[in-house]
Batch of 2 targets.
Target 1
Amino acid sequence: MEKEPMLKVEHLVKSFGTHEVLKDLDFSVNKGEVICVIGSSGSGKSTMLRCINGLETKTGGRIFFEGKEILSGSKELAKFRTKVGMVFQSFNLFNNMTVLQNCMAGTTKVLKMNKEDAKFLAIKYLRKVGMAPYINAMPAQLSGGQKQRVAIARALTMEPQMLLFDEPTSALDPEMVGEVLGVMKNLAKDGLTMMIVTHEMAFARDVSTRTIFMDQGVIVENDISEVIFKNPRTARMKEFLKRYMEA
Ligand code: ADP
Ligand code: MG
Protein backbone atom coordinates (compact mmCIF):
# COMPACT_ATOMS: atom_id res chain seq x y z
CA MET A 1 0.00 0.00 0.00
CA GLU A 2 1.30 3.44 -0.88
CA LYS A 3 1.86 5.77 2.03
CA GLU A 4 -0.80 8.41 2.37
CA PRO A 5 0.42 12.02 2.31
CA MET A 6 -0.18 14.03 5.47
CA LEU A 7 -1.79 16.82 3.51
CA LYS A 8 -3.29 16.59 0.07
CA VAL A 9 -4.62 19.58 -1.83
CA GLU A 10 -6.67 19.02 -4.96
CA HIS A 11 -7.81 21.65 -7.43
CA LEU A 12 -7.64 24.43 -4.86
CA VAL A 13 -9.25 27.62 -6.14
CA LYS A 14 -9.67 30.89 -4.29
CA SER A 15 -11.29 34.02 -5.67
CA PHE A 16 -11.84 37.40 -4.10
CA GLY A 17 -14.81 38.74 -6.04
CA THR A 18 -13.91 38.24 -9.68
CA HIS A 19 -10.18 38.04 -8.94
CA GLU A 20 -9.05 34.43 -9.05
CA VAL A 21 -6.03 34.40 -6.76
CA LEU A 22 -5.40 30.63 -6.62
CA LYS A 23 -5.94 28.77 -9.85
CA ASP A 24 -6.37 25.05 -9.49
CA LEU A 25 -3.50 24.15 -7.16
CA ASP A 26 -2.54 20.51 -6.66
CA PHE A 27 0.15 19.31 -4.26
CA SER A 28 0.70 17.10 -1.29
CA VAL A 29 2.93 17.14 1.78
CA ASN A 30 4.37 13.98 3.28
CA LYS A 31 5.14 13.50 6.94
CA GLY A 32 8.56 14.93 7.80
CA GLU A 33 8.83 17.08 4.71
CA VAL A 34 9.97 20.68 4.89
CA ILE A 35 8.52 22.56 1.96
CA CYS A 36 9.46 26.11 1.12
CA VAL A 37 7.09 28.19 -0.95
CA ILE A 38 8.69 30.97 -2.93
CA GLY A 39 7.37 33.51 -5.43
CA SER A 40 6.87 37.21 -5.98
CA SER A 41 4.63 39.31 -3.82
CA GLY A 42 0.99 38.87 -4.84
CA SER A 43 1.48 35.39 -6.28
CA GLY A 44 -0.95 33.87 -3.76
CA LYS A 45 1.40 32.30 -1.21
CA SER A 46 -0.30 33.67 1.91
CA THR A 47 -3.74 32.95 0.53
CA MET A 48 -2.71 29.36 -0.08
CA LEU A 49 -1.54 28.89 3.54
CA ARG A 50 -4.66 30.63 4.83
CA CYS A 51 -6.88 28.33 2.79
CA ILE A 52 -5.03 25.30 4.12
CA ASN A 53 -5.69 26.12 7.75
CA GLY A 54 -9.12 27.55 7.22
CA LEU A 55 -8.38 31.23 7.85
CA GLU A 56 -9.85 31.78 4.37
CA THR A 57 -12.74 29.82 2.91
CA LYS A 58 -11.71 28.25 -0.34
CA THR A 59 -13.79 28.82 -3.46
CA GLY A 60 -13.21 25.36 -4.86
CA GLY A 61 -11.21 22.19 -4.54
CA ARG A 62 -10.63 19.72 -1.74
CA ILE A 63 -8.18 19.47 1.14
CA PHE A 64 -7.40 16.18 2.86
CA PHE A 65 -5.50 15.71 6.11
CA GLU A 66 -4.35 12.15 6.76
CA GLY A 67 -6.85 10.97 4.18
CA LYS A 68 -9.81 12.76 5.70
CA GLU A 69 -11.44 15.60 3.82
CA ILE A 70 -11.54 18.90 5.71
CA LEU A 71 -14.83 20.60 4.97
CA SER A 72 -15.26 24.29 5.75
CA GLY A 73 -17.38 24.95 8.79
CA SER A 74 -17.18 21.35 9.93
CA LYS A 75 -16.20 19.95 13.32
CA GLU A 76 -13.18 18.40 11.60
CA LEU A 77 -11.99 21.88 10.68
CA ALA A 78 -11.75 22.93 14.32
CA LYS A 79 -9.89 19.73 15.19
CA PHE A 80 -7.66 20.02 12.15
CA ARG A 81 -6.72 23.57 13.09
CA THR A 82 -5.33 22.37 16.40
CA LYS A 83 -3.11 19.96 14.47
CA VAL A 84 -1.83 22.49 11.97
CA GLY A 85 -0.17 25.52 13.54
CA MET A 86 0.63 28.80 11.91
CA VAL A 87 3.39 31.36 12.46
CA PHE A 88 2.89 34.81 10.98
CA GLN A 89 5.20 37.52 9.73
CA SER A 90 3.90 39.92 12.37
CA PHE A 91 4.23 37.48 15.33
CA ASN A 92 0.63 38.04 16.49
CA LEU A 93 1.53 37.68 20.16
CA PHE A 94 -0.98 38.83 22.76
CA ASN A 95 0.69 42.07 23.84
CA ASN A 96 -1.11 42.25 27.18
CA MET A 97 0.19 38.86 28.26
CA THR A 98 3.61 37.69 29.41
CA VAL A 99 5.68 35.30 27.33
CA LEU A 100 4.55 32.43 29.54
CA GLN A 101 0.88 33.40 29.35
CA ASN A 102 1.17 33.65 25.57
CA CYS A 103 2.49 30.11 25.48
CA MET A 104 -0.26 28.78 27.77
CA ALA A 105 -3.19 30.44 26.00
CA GLY A 106 -3.73 27.87 23.27
CA THR A 107 -3.30 24.82 25.42
CA THR A 108 -5.54 26.04 28.28
CA LYS A 109 -8.24 27.73 26.17
CA VAL A 110 -8.41 25.54 23.07
CA LEU A 111 -7.19 22.17 24.33
CA LYS A 112 -8.64 22.73 27.85
CA MET A 113 -5.40 21.55 29.41
CA ASN A 114 -4.87 22.17 33.12
CA LYS A 115 -2.49 24.97 34.06
CA GLU A 116 0.26 22.76 35.36
CA ASP A 117 0.52 20.69 32.18
CA ALA A 118 0.20 23.83 30.08
CA LYS A 119 3.04 25.48 31.97
CA PHE A 120 5.20 22.40 31.57
CA LEU A 121 4.72 22.43 27.80
CA ALA A 122 5.20 26.19 27.58
CA ILE A 123 8.55 25.99 29.34
CA LYS A 124 9.59 22.93 27.35
CA TYR A 125 9.09 24.74 24.05
CA LEU A 126 10.36 28.12 25.24
CA ARG A 127 13.53 26.30 26.19
CA LYS A 128 13.63 24.74 22.74
CA VAL A 129 13.68 28.18 21.10
CA GLY A 130 16.04 29.64 23.71
CA MET A 131 13.44 31.89 25.31
CA ALA A 132 12.96 30.21 28.69
CA PRO A 133 14.79 33.03 30.54
CA TYR A 134 12.11 35.46 29.34
CA ILE A 135 8.96 33.81 30.69
CA ASN A 136 7.91 36.88 32.65
CA ALA A 137 8.71 39.44 29.96
CA MET A 138 6.02 41.28 28.06
CA PRO A 139 6.21 41.14 24.24
CA ALA A 140 6.97 44.88 24.08
CA GLN A 141 10.23 44.24 25.94
CA LEU A 142 11.46 41.75 23.34
CA SER A 143 13.28 42.19 20.05
CA GLY A 144 11.59 41.07 16.84
CA GLY A 145 13.64 37.90 16.69
CA GLN A 146 12.77 37.06 20.29
CA LYS A 147 9.08 37.73 19.65
CA GLN A 148 9.11 35.41 16.68
CA ARG A 149 10.84 32.69 18.69
CA VAL A 150 8.11 33.01 21.33
CA ALA A 151 5.49 32.80 18.59
CA ILE A 152 7.11 29.59 17.36
CA ALA A 153 7.18 28.18 20.91
CA ARG A 154 3.53 29.09 21.30
CA ALA A 155 2.67 27.21 18.11
CA LEU A 156 4.70 24.21 19.32
CA THR A 157 2.85 23.97 22.64
CA MET A 158 -0.13 22.70 20.68
CA GLU A 159 2.13 19.85 19.53
CA PRO A 160 0.97 20.28 15.94
CA GLN A 161 1.55 17.67 13.29
CA MET A 162 2.37 20.38 10.84
CA LEU A 163 3.49 24.00 11.09
CA LEU A 164 2.80 26.63 8.47
CA PHE A 165 5.02 29.70 8.38
CA ASP A 166 4.13 32.84 6.44
CA GLU A 167 7.32 34.86 5.91
CA PRO A 168 8.47 34.40 9.50
CA THR A 169 11.59 36.53 9.04
CA SER A 170 10.32 39.28 6.72
CA ALA A 171 9.49 41.72 9.51
CA LEU A 172 12.84 41.27 11.26
CA ASP A 173 15.94 43.43 11.24
CA PRO A 174 18.61 41.59 9.24
CA GLU A 175 20.69 40.73 12.31
CA MET A 176 17.76 38.79 13.79
CA VAL A 177 16.91 36.66 10.79
CA GLY A 178 19.54 34.07 11.63
CA GLU A 179 18.30 33.24 15.12
CA VAL A 180 14.80 32.52 13.83
CA LEU A 181 16.01 30.50 10.85
CA GLY A 182 18.23 28.58 13.28
CA VAL A 183 15.21 27.58 15.35
CA MET A 184 13.39 26.47 12.21
CA LYS A 185 16.41 24.49 11.08
CA ASN A 186 16.36 22.62 14.41
CA LEU A 187 12.68 21.85 14.00
CA ALA A 188 13.42 20.49 10.54
CA LYS A 189 16.12 18.29 12.06
CA ASP A 190 13.59 17.00 14.59
CA GLY A 191 11.43 15.88 11.68
CA LEU A 192 8.59 18.35 12.10
CA THR A 193 6.50 18.68 8.95
CA MET A 194 6.58 22.28 7.81
CA MET A 195 5.43 24.49 4.99
CA ILE A 196 7.31 27.77 4.90
CA VAL A 197 6.66 30.79 2.73
CA THR A 198 9.96 32.62 2.57
CA HIS A 199 12.21 34.95 0.64
CA GLU A 200 15.29 33.37 2.23
CA MET A 201 16.56 31.55 -0.82
CA ALA A 202 19.60 30.02 0.86
CA PHE A 203 17.35 28.57 3.58
CA ALA A 204 14.96 27.16 0.96
CA ARG A 205 17.84 25.64 -0.99
CA ASP A 206 19.73 24.21 1.99
CA VAL A 207 17.08 23.29 4.55
CA SER A 208 13.88 22.41 2.73
CA THR A 209 13.36 19.04 1.13
CA ARG A 210 11.11 20.46 -1.54
CA THR A 211 10.43 23.88 -2.98
CA ILE A 212 7.25 25.13 -4.58
CA PHE A 213 7.53 28.16 -6.83
CA MET A 214 4.32 30.10 -7.33
CA ASP A 215 3.56 32.78 -9.86
CA GLN A 216 0.23 34.52 -10.41
CA GLY A 217 -1.80 31.97 -8.51
CA VAL A 218 -0.25 28.93 -10.16
CA ILE A 219 2.31 26.40 -8.97
CA VAL A 220 4.95 26.74 -11.66
CA GLU A 221 7.53 24.38 -10.19
CA ASN A 222 7.42 21.81 -7.40
CA ASP A 223 10.52 19.72 -6.98
CA ILE A 224 13.37 18.65 -4.74
CA SER A 225 15.02 21.87 -3.56
CA GLU A 226 18.47 20.85 -4.69
CA VAL A 227 17.16 20.20 -8.20
CA ILE A 228 15.00 23.28 -8.43
CA PHE A 229 17.78 25.70 -7.45
CA LYS A 230 20.42 24.07 -9.60
CA ASN A 231 18.22 23.45 -12.59
CA PRO A 232 15.11 25.60 -12.73
CA ARG A 233 13.08 24.30 -15.67
CA THR A 234 10.93 27.30 -16.42
CA ALA A 235 11.81 30.75 -17.70
CA ARG A 236 9.64 32.24 -14.92
CA MET A 237 11.61 30.55 -12.16
CA LYS A 238 14.94 31.44 -13.79
CA GLU A 239 13.85 35.06 -14.01
CA PHE A 240 12.70 35.04 -10.37
CA LEU A 241 15.99 33.60 -9.12
CA LYS A 242 18.01 35.97 -11.24
CA ARG A 243 16.21 38.96 -9.72
CA TYR A 244 17.10 37.57 -6.29
CA MET A 245 20.75 37.14 -7.08
CA GLU A 246 20.91 40.72 -8.31
CA ALA A 247 19.09 42.14 -5.27
P1 ADP B 1 1.55 36.67 -1.54
O1 ADP B 1 1.42 36.15 -0.16
O2 ADP B 1 2.17 35.72 -2.49
O3 ADP B 1 2.20 38.02 -1.59
P2 ADP B 1 -1.32 36.97 -1.33
O4 ADP B 1 -1.84 35.60 -1.14
O5 ADP B 1 -1.22 37.84 -0.16
O6 ADP B 1 0.08 36.89 -2.11
O7 ADP B 1 -2.22 37.74 -2.38
C1 ADP B 1 -2.52 37.22 -3.64
C2 ADP B 1 -3.51 38.13 -4.32
O8 ADP B 1 -4.74 38.09 -3.61
C3 ADP B 1 -3.09 39.59 -4.35
O9 ADP B 1 -3.45 40.13 -5.60
C4 ADP B 1 -3.89 40.21 -3.24
O10 ADP B 1 -4.15 41.55 -3.50
C5 ADP B 1 -5.16 39.37 -3.26
N1 ADP B 1 -5.80 39.30 -1.95
C6 ADP B 1 -5.28 38.72 -0.85
N2 ADP B 1 -6.13 38.79 0.19
C7 ADP B 1 -7.22 39.46 -0.27
C8 ADP B 1 -8.46 39.85 0.33
N3 ADP B 1 -8.76 39.56 1.61
N4 ADP B 1 -9.34 40.51 -0.46
C9 ADP B 1 -9.07 40.78 -1.74
N5 ADP B 1 -7.93 40.44 -2.36
C10 ADP B 1 -7.01 39.78 -1.64
MG1 MG C 1 2.15 36.91 1.63
Target 2
Amino acid sequence: MNRLLQDVAKVLIPQRELQARVAELGQEISADYEGLNPILLCVLKGGYVFLADLTRALTIEHGVDFMAVSSYGSATESSGVVRILKDLDTDITDRHLLIVEDIIDTGNTLSYLLENLRVRGPASIKICTILSKPSRREVDLQVEYVGFEVPNEFVIGYGLDYGERYRNLDFIGVLKPEVYS
Ligand code: IMP
Ligand code: MG
Protein backbone atom coordinates (compact mmCIF):
# COMPACT_ATOMS: atom_id res chain seq x y z
CA MET A 1 0.00 0.00 0.00
CA ASN A 2 1.07 3.57 -0.76
CA ARG A 3 2.52 4.98 2.46
CA LEU A 4 1.44 8.52 1.54
CA LEU A 5 -2.17 7.44 2.06
CA GLN A 6 -1.61 7.28 5.82
CA ASP A 7 -1.37 11.10 5.87
CA VAL A 8 -4.71 11.66 4.14
CA ALA A 9 -7.59 12.71 6.43
CA LYS A 10 -10.23 12.37 3.72
CA VAL A 11 -10.73 12.05 -0.02
CA LEU A 12 -12.30 15.23 -1.37
CA ILE A 13 -12.47 14.35 -5.08
CA PRO A 14 -12.02 10.71 -6.10
CA GLN A 15 -10.11 9.75 -9.23
CA ARG A 16 -13.17 8.90 -11.33
CA GLU A 17 -14.70 12.33 -10.66
CA LEU A 18 -11.46 14.05 -11.64
CA GLN A 19 -11.25 12.03 -14.85
CA ALA A 20 -14.88 12.72 -15.77
CA ARG A 21 -14.47 16.46 -15.18
CA VAL A 22 -11.23 16.62 -17.19
CA ALA A 23 -13.00 14.90 -20.09
CA GLU A 24 -15.76 17.54 -19.93
CA LEU A 25 -13.25 20.39 -19.83
CA GLY A 26 -11.44 18.83 -22.78
CA GLN A 27 -14.63 18.85 -24.84
CA GLU A 28 -15.49 22.40 -23.86
CA ILE A 29 -12.00 23.73 -24.63
CA SER A 30 -11.84 21.79 -27.92
CA ALA A 31 -15.10 23.46 -29.02
CA ASP A 32 -14.04 26.95 -27.87
CA TYR A 33 -10.59 26.82 -29.50
CA GLU A 34 -11.45 25.06 -32.77
CA GLY A 35 -9.04 26.29 -35.47
CA LEU A 36 -7.09 28.57 -33.08
CA ASN A 37 -4.14 26.27 -32.30
CA PRO A 38 -3.80 27.45 -28.68
CA ILE A 39 -0.74 27.02 -26.47
CA LEU A 40 -1.45 25.29 -23.19
CA LEU A 41 0.86 26.94 -20.70
CA CYS A 42 1.43 24.64 -17.76
CA VAL A 43 2.50 26.33 -14.55
CA LEU A 44 5.02 24.03 -12.88
CA LYS A 45 5.21 22.17 -10.82
CA GLY A 46 1.64 21.67 -9.64
CA GLY A 47 0.02 21.75 -13.09
CA TYR A 48 1.86 18.81 -14.63
CA VAL A 49 -0.62 16.04 -13.79
CA PHE A 50 -3.64 18.04 -14.93
CA LEU A 51 -1.87 19.11 -18.13
CA ALA A 52 -1.00 15.51 -18.99
CA ASP A 53 -4.66 14.50 -18.72
CA LEU A 54 -6.10 17.66 -20.29
CA THR A 55 -3.88 17.60 -23.38
CA ARG A 56 -5.06 14.03 -24.10
CA ALA A 57 -8.70 15.08 -23.65
CA LEU A 58 -8.36 17.71 -26.44
CA THR A 59 -9.39 16.85 -29.97
CA ILE A 60 -7.93 20.00 -31.56
CA GLU A 61 -4.45 21.01 -32.65
CA HIS A 62 -2.55 22.72 -29.81
CA GLY A 63 0.91 23.24 -28.38
CA VAL A 64 2.19 22.89 -24.83
CA ASP A 65 4.79 24.91 -23.01
CA PHE A 66 5.93 25.31 -19.42
CA MET A 67 6.77 28.01 -16.94
CA ALA A 68 8.12 27.43 -13.48
CA VAL A 69 7.47 30.05 -10.86
CA SER A 70 8.10 30.15 -7.20
CA SER A 71 5.96 32.22 -4.97
CA TYR A 72 7.57 33.60 -1.85
CA GLY A 73 5.74 32.88 1.34
CA SER A 74 5.26 30.10 3.85
CA ALA A 75 4.65 26.47 2.90
CA THR A 76 0.89 26.96 2.77
CA GLU A 77 0.45 30.68 1.90
CA SER A 78 1.62 32.57 -1.19
CA SER A 79 2.65 36.23 -1.08
CA GLY A 80 2.21 37.40 -4.65
CA VAL A 81 5.93 38.04 -5.03
CA VAL A 82 6.81 35.65 -7.79
CA ARG A 83 10.14 34.58 -9.20
CA ILE A 84 10.32 33.06 -12.69
CA LEU A 85 12.50 29.96 -12.49
CA LYS A 86 11.85 28.79 -16.05
CA ASP A 87 10.39 30.89 -18.84
CA LEU A 88 8.46 29.82 -21.95
CA ASP A 89 10.34 28.47 -24.98
CA THR A 90 7.63 29.70 -27.37
CA ASP A 91 7.14 33.19 -28.79
CA ILE A 92 3.55 33.87 -27.77
CA THR A 93 3.02 36.99 -29.89
CA ASP A 94 -0.44 36.71 -31.53
CA ARG A 95 -0.97 33.22 -30.08
CA HIS A 96 -3.93 32.08 -27.99
CA LEU A 97 -2.72 31.17 -24.51
CA LEU A 98 -4.52 28.91 -22.10
CA ILE A 99 -2.89 28.85 -18.68
CA VAL A 100 -3.21 25.45 -16.98
CA GLU A 101 -3.05 25.59 -13.18
CA ASP A 102 -3.44 23.19 -10.30
CA ILE A 103 -5.22 25.54 -7.93
CA ILE A 104 -6.14 29.20 -7.62
CA ASP A 105 -6.06 30.18 -4.00
CA THR A 106 -5.46 33.89 -3.27
CA GLY A 107 -4.90 34.45 -7.00
CA ASN A 108 -1.68 36.37 -6.32
CA THR A 109 0.60 34.08 -8.31
CA LEU A 110 -1.62 34.11 -11.36
CA SER A 111 -2.27 37.82 -11.28
CA TYR A 112 1.49 38.44 -11.39
CA LEU A 113 1.89 35.92 -14.19
CA LEU A 114 -0.90 37.50 -16.24
CA GLU A 115 0.77 40.90 -16.09
CA ASN A 116 4.04 39.37 -17.19
CA LEU A 117 2.42 37.52 -20.13
CA ARG A 118 0.14 40.33 -21.37
CA VAL A 119 3.07 42.57 -22.35
CA ARG A 120 4.27 39.86 -24.75
CA GLY A 121 1.30 40.52 -27.01
CA PRO A 122 -0.63 37.23 -27.14
CA ALA A 123 -3.91 37.13 -29.12
CA SER A 124 -5.76 36.05 -25.95
CA ILE A 125 -5.12 34.69 -22.48
CA LYS A 126 -7.55 32.49 -20.58
CA ILE A 127 -7.20 30.43 -17.43
CA CYS A 128 -8.03 26.79 -16.80
CA THR A 129 -7.61 25.41 -13.30
CA ILE A 130 -8.58 22.04 -11.92
CA LEU A 131 -9.27 23.54 -8.46
CA SER A 132 -10.34 26.90 -7.12
CA LYS A 133 -10.74 28.15 -3.55
CA PRO A 134 -13.00 31.16 -4.13
CA SER A 135 -13.30 32.01 -0.43
CA ARG A 136 -9.56 32.79 -0.34
CA ARG A 137 -9.40 35.11 -3.36
CA GLU A 138 -7.50 38.38 -2.75
CA VAL A 139 -7.45 39.67 -6.33
CA ASP A 140 -10.22 39.80 -8.88
CA LEU A 141 -9.45 37.19 -11.55
CA GLN A 142 -11.57 35.97 -14.40
CA VAL A 143 -11.18 32.19 -14.58
CA GLU A 144 -12.87 30.70 -17.63
CA TYR A 145 -12.51 27.00 -16.84
CA VAL A 146 -12.73 25.61 -13.30
CA GLY A 147 -12.74 21.90 -12.56
CA PHE A 148 -13.97 22.03 -8.98
CA GLU A 149 -14.45 24.60 -6.27
CA VAL A 150 -13.00 23.42 -2.98
CA PRO A 151 -13.45 24.66 0.59
CA ASN A 152 -10.72 26.45 2.49
CA GLU A 153 -8.65 23.40 3.39
CA PHE A 154 -5.12 22.51 2.34
CA VAL A 155 -5.45 19.88 -0.36
CA ILE A 156 -2.94 17.52 -1.93
CA GLY A 157 -2.74 15.06 -4.80
CA TYR A 158 -3.23 15.28 -8.58
CA GLY A 159 -0.09 17.46 -8.83
CA LEU A 160 -0.58 19.39 -5.59
CA ASP A 161 2.04 18.97 -2.93
CA TYR A 162 2.90 19.65 0.64
CA GLY A 163 6.68 19.92 0.93
CA GLU A 164 7.06 18.23 -2.51
CA ARG A 165 5.15 15.15 -1.38
CA TYR A 166 1.76 13.69 -2.42
CA ARG A 167 1.78 15.03 -6.01
CA ASN A 168 1.39 11.51 -7.40
CA LEU A 169 -1.84 10.66 -5.58
CA ASP A 170 -4.54 10.17 -8.24
CA PHE A 171 -7.26 11.87 -6.16
CA ILE A 172 -7.60 15.18 -4.30
CA GLY A 173 -7.37 14.73 -0.55
CA VAL A 174 -7.13 16.73 2.65
CA LEU A 175 -4.01 16.28 4.75
CA LYS A 176 -4.19 15.20 8.36
CA PRO A 177 -3.52 18.25 10.56
CA GLU A 178 -0.70 16.47 12.41
CA VAL A 179 1.33 16.43 9.17
CA TYR A 180 1.62 20.24 9.33
CA SER A 181 2.79 20.44 12.91
P1 IMP B 1 -2.12 31.62 -4.90
O1 IMP B 1 -1.05 32.54 -5.39
O2 IMP B 1 -2.49 31.94 -3.47
O3 IMP B 1 -3.34 31.58 -5.78
O4 IMP B 1 -1.50 30.18 -4.78
C1 IMP B 1 -1.06 29.52 -5.89
C2 IMP B 1 -0.19 28.33 -5.57
O5 IMP B 1 -0.16 28.01 -4.17
C3 IMP B 1 -0.75 27.10 -6.24
O6 IMP B 1 -0.35 27.01 -7.58
C4 IMP B 1 -0.21 26.00 -5.36
O7 IMP B 1 1.09 25.63 -5.76
C5 IMP B 1 -0.17 26.61 -3.97
N1 IMP B 1 -1.36 26.22 -3.20
C6 IMP B 1 -2.41 27.00 -2.82
N2 IMP B 1 -3.32 26.31 -2.12
C7 IMP B 1 -2.86 25.04 -2.06
C8 IMP B 1 -3.37 23.82 -1.47
O8 IMP B 1 -4.46 23.74 -0.85
N3 IMP B 1 -2.59 22.72 -1.63
C9 IMP B 1 -1.40 22.72 -2.30
N4 IMP B 1 -0.88 23.83 -2.86
C10 IMP B 1 -1.60 24.98 -2.74
MG1 MG C 1 2.90 24.08 -4.63
